[in-house]
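Subject: sequence -> structure tokens, single chain

Hey, anyone have a minute? Need the predicted structure for the following. Not urgent.
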Amino acid sequence: MSLNSFDLSKARMAAAAKFLAGGVSSNFRLNISPTPLVIDNGYGPYVVDVDGHHLIDYYLGMGPMILGHAPKAVIEAARSQLDRGIIFASQTEVEFEAARLVCELVPCAERVRFGSSGTEVIQAALRLARAATGKQTVVKFEGHYHGWLDNVQWSVAPSAAACGPIEHPNKVPGTPGQDLQCGTNVDVLGWNDLGAVERRLARGDVAAVIMEPAMCNTSAIAPNPGYLEGVRAACSKAGAILIFDEVITGFRLSAGGAQGLFGVKPDLATFGKAIASGFPVAALAGRADLMDLFASGGVMHGGTYNAHPVNMAATVATLRTLAQGDVYAAVEKHGRRLMAGIEETLQHYGIPARIQGFPGIFHVAFGVTTPIVSFRDTFHIDRARYIRFTTALIERGVRALERGAWFLSSEHDESVIAATLDAVSGAAKAVA
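Reply:
Had a minute. Here:
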């Protein structure tokens, strides 16, 4: 049975547009069908919109809420710290404990620095790599997103016509108004192609190779066997810094992130989202000799809100919970069940689709059935039909991202998965 209308969300969005550009503060929240929602509250695996709908949520704040909405231990920790003061322009014991936990859990982390967003710490990582190597060129990959700043928003989602030859991809700016000079020292390659990386690094002028170690901003793509190991070896040989952008994968694929799951250590890694259960925390972690350049090498890194005490309390509470391992066991079990159930349902209704990825973040693509192993494999996805599907889902009480990603939390239990699959069946029938 479909839910009542989303009229109040529509009305609130229209009213907000008089003060907020587009009624939102992030472009990623625009143009959602049937309307961008206005959320009143969230609990466990649910969000409640202003129209009063209790929706099973697979947005999970775009990934941070691995413990579900309003996790009690995290909120209590933040509230307790808030009673002690807000910000001091100094260090706190809770910051030290958060740093210790990151270094204990993350394989590459010999040192850590905290920030407020993934975009910020990625910039710090690139600066550190250039300072350490004395080189300027950064290699990134098609379909990988490393923040919205001008020097990294290249070939994030280019059209098929703009991409150019796969052997030598075009470097495509991501937005009107982008400073094109900021791309002078950026080279773009296709991901999962080890030979392309080895050939580019052989020129000897690369400061850093930055990548999502598992591609999650475009589909949910695992690295080919041997790919990460090969890139690691090629970077070491060429004297280039290997940076893993684990803003999505960190503390979601495992307590050690993708590097822990795949057993490959980068020189530096960036984290965000799941590190603090939705509080604005990001981290840059890596080799001590590199990270200590901030302290002894004159490399600038600052920020008024870095290691904000309340956010650090949330980080400690989150990481202590994740370190126990129970969360990942639950997500593994229920995520696999959901992936299989969606696949079975879509096959039943004759909808060609590809479901792939990881239990904590997987991707559903309509119109393709073969494995998606690179950005260009996504060109044949039937996005319009999938949006009709997500619209039908939300009318049946399930909120799923229109780009195809599904995030799970420890709160998505068997009953929630069963209810989700009921909604999937109804939505699939509606668009079959």
